[in-house]
Design brief:
This protein has 3 helices and 17 strands. Strands 1-2-13-12-14-10-11 form a 7-stranded antiparallel sheet, with helices on one face. It has a 5-stranded antiparallel sheet with strand order 3-17-4-15-16. A 5-stranded antiparallel sheet has the order 6-5-9-7-8. The longest helix is centred in the C-terminal third of the chain and has 11 residues. By secondary structure, the protein is mainly beta.
């Protein structure tokens, strides 16, 4: 049995959450259900012309939300387009890698070696300010980025690096989980993908490379992967999660 960092849940126990069908009265969704190489996925798009991206970790008083339900109950959700878990974390739900929220850096870049998916180099950072969003390897981020972004989260491994699959990712390995990830295309749109059926790293990475054409894509986590999509009424539960990525409408 193989356990992913931050999840505490063996991959064999992964149980995907079905997506409710939207009703006629609901607003158009930024997410759609797709199939790729036999895997069922939900693909959500953040458009810099229409949306903002931010990170969220804790409520007032500093206690991490630990679930999308708790987050939804703590915020005015009328402007939320969707939200997703945003990287790996420790036993208290706090990020183990670089984390910036509202331009405040709460955790420095983690370039240490270690076990597990997070340390399967290269790992990377998803970050941005305003309508400019990027995915970079941690080493490139360290070497090239001097200004602190408005939001940022580190996870690992990278799924796609410079248009190529991560060198340690096999074509379709035996490890299957309800994984999620994020990538940014040439037009600057951010693509968030979550598996609705367990899948390998290879399938998820190829979806970003071959279907979404994102030159860089970052794995966010597995088994604990969760999505809140208000337009469809979907709000995933399950194991406690850590930091969140939140996409909202521009006012």
């Amino acid at each position: 049995m193989r356990t992913e960092i931050g999840s505490g849940v063996a991959e064999e126990t992964a149980t995907p959450t079905p997506t409710p069908e939207p009703t006629a009265t609901q607003v158009a969704s930024a997410c759609e259900n797709v199939e790729f190489e036999g895997a069922q996925l939900t693909h959500c798009v953040a458009d810099p012309a229409k949306h903002r991206i931010s990170t969220a970790l804790a409520a007032e008083g500093g206690t991490p939300f630990r679930s999308l339900k708790a987050f939804s109950q703590a915020v005015d959700g009328t402007n939320v387009v969707f939200a997703m878990n945003a990287g790996m974390y420790d036993g208290d739900g706090k990020p183990i890698g670089y984390y910036v929220e509202d331009s405040d850096r709460l955790k420095e870049l983690n370039r240490a070696d270690g076990p597990g998916n997070f340390h399967l180099k290269p790992n990377g950072v998803f970050f941005g300010s305003g309508g400019t969003w990027r995915v970079m390897s941690a080493d490139d981020f360290y070497a090239q980025i001097g200004d602190r972004p408005e939001f940022g989260t580190q996870s690992g491994p990278m799924l796609v690096v410079g248009g190529k699959l991560h060198p340690e990712i096999s074509h379709d390995g035996p490890s299957k989980a309800t994984r999620n990830g994020v990538g940014v295309d040439a037009a600057g749109k951010a693509h968030f993908v979550i598996a609705n059926t367990p899948l390998s790293f290879g399938v998820l990475a190829r979806y970003f490379r071959d279907e979404l054409n994102t030159p860089n894509a970052l794995f966010l986590d597995g088994n604990v992967s969760a999505l809140w999509n208000p337009a469809s009424g979907r709000i995933d539960g399950g194991a406690p999660i850590g930091p969140l990525l939140v996409v909202t409408n521009k006012e």
